[in-house]
Amino acid sequence: MSSTPGSTVQSGRRVRRAAVVTHGKPERIGPALGRLEALAAGHGVELVFPEEERAKHDLASADGDPAAADLAVVLGGDGTMLRALTRFLGTRVPVIGVNFGRVGFLASMHPDELEDGLARAFAGDFVVVELPTLEARVGEECHAAVNDVVVTSGTLGRMVELVWSIGDEDLGRQPCDGLICSTPSGSTAYNLSNGGPVLVWGLDAMALTFVAPHSLHVRPLVVPRGRDLTVTNQTADVPAVVLVDGHEFTRIGSGGRVEIGLGPQRTMLATLPERTFFRRYRETFGS
Fold it and tell me: Which residue(s) pair with 154 in the sheet?
């Protein structure tokens, strides 16, 4: 498949083995796993369950390597999709979702479409969208992010003062609650709720959006690949927390800094051909 960022590639390849990732609360998907198992059996598709899924659903049998699957099927919401995209990062396994969550922007079908939609996917009727990731670096430590990297106050209710620069150009000092750096796939999450721009799939860029900035003038920025962001915590008595996809990566004290840029890896989001970005956008955020 192409490695061009944001490219959409028609699969056309019949699925023989599918990995399964489900919602963190099994009761949320109800009988969906059984429906998937019956569908897979009818189409000659072997289902592969990662170790954590076998434990969650009390499956005793050992399965093959999920990274050798032709497709990963997600039964869950955007959080489960994020977990699966991270789980299969670097394996070239596309991830397709059936939405059992609240928003489901990354999922390709609704629960009542499971049989018809996945039957098409198993027959190879899906496309794969390759989307950029972020890379956060603190000292010698490095972590990849599928959705976003957030630098925020480590003390509830206290602002932080962040000095930020892009490339070698200083952009000043900003008192705020934090700064969100998001990918196109993450731009419709925390970034959007803070007034940041939505990045259409196909853009090889990241969005920078401050959280509650103490300013009348600061605005979000869209930054292309190759222009890395450096954020330095200049708050004397408040540490800053660096969150990668919602999980704490590290903390930086006064004078500490994190570098964030578009990384070399790409997520492989699979979708039914008609479930385009703009159709999802209209259905999810339209009036």
Answer: none
User: Is the overall model pTM greater than 0.85, yes or no?
Assistant: yes
Paired with 142 in beta bridges are 137
**Rounded to an integer, what distance in angstroms lies between the CA atom of residue 88 and that of residue 67?**
7
What do you get for the CA distance between the two ends of the chain, in Å? Answer: 36
- Residue 106: the pLDDT is 95
Tokens (6 digits) for 211 = 């959280």
Q: Are the CB atoms for 135 and 262 separated by under 8 Å?
A: yes
Nearest to 220 by CA among 242, 185, 194: 194
State residue 3's pLDDT score.
47
With 0-12 CB in 10 A as exposed, 13-18 as middle and 19+ as buried, what is 153? Answer: buried
pLDDT in tens, 157-190: 899 999 999 998 999 999 999 999 999 999 999 9
SS3 275: coil
Beta strand pairing call for 46-48 and 17-22:
parallel
Please state, in angstroms and rounded to a whole number, the distance separating the CA atoms of residues 227 and 51.
Answer: 39
pLDDT at 5: 54
Phi/psi-derived region of residue 255, left when phi > 0, alpha when psi is between -120 and 50, beta in every other case: left
Alpha-carbon span 114 to 273, nearest angstrom: 15
Does residue 70 carry a catalytic annotation? no
Distances (CA, A) of 6 to 3, 9, 84, 184, 280: 9, 10, 19, 9, 16
CB 141 within 8 A of CB 250: yes
Low-confidence ranges of the chain (pLDDT < 70): 1-12, 58, 60-64, 287
On whether the CB atoms of residues 256 and 233 are closer than 8 A, the answer is yes
pLDDT in tens, 16-47: 999 999 998 888 899 999 999 999 999 999 99
Tell me which of 78, 148, 204, 245 is the catalytic residue. Answer: 78
